[in-house]
Amino acid sequence: MNREQMIHHIRKTMVEQMDLLKESVETAVGKMKAADDRPADYFDLAALESSKAVELKCRTKEWQMLLQAKETIMRIDLGLHGFCDSCGRPISRKRLRAAPASKLCLACQQDQENRAIRQQRRLAAGSRMVWQHA
Ligand SMILES: [Zn+2]
To answer: pLDDT grade, residue 123 (50/70/90)?
Structure first.
């Protein structure tokens, strides 16, 4: 499979993923509407609210995946997908096979993660200093 075929394959996979996610969201919304009947007592109400919270957390994850698939399709259609957003170099086929929605090459991804870790450490050190001087 050459690079162009791979990008075409990724697009097809993302469209299929979007269809599945949309179906799942519609089913969940239907279930939540059906479960909206008046609960018998406070315990039923608490159980209903708890299950709704879990359901919403799952839907949020699905929504993020849906947005990612849609963004990937748009990037493919614009001819941007497969190139690193940071350095502009082609993202390796190995990386695209492992993570089809990648927007960064491996080196830039690692660089970004290392920067985030350093920033978290600086913030943690800063908050420790504030506590020591308080
Ligand atoms: Zn890069």
So the answer is: very high
3-state secondary structure 67-89: HHHHHHHHHHHCCCCCECCCCCC
Write the burial class of residue 73 (CB in 10 Å: 0-12 exposed, 13-18 middle, 19+ buried): buried
SS3 assignment, position 90: strand
- The string of pLDDT tens digits covering residues 72-100 is 999 999 999 999 999 999 999 999 999 99
Compute the distance from residue 85 Cα to the ligand 1 centre, in Å: 7
Global confidence as pTM:
0.72
CA of 7 to the centre of ligand 1 (A): 18
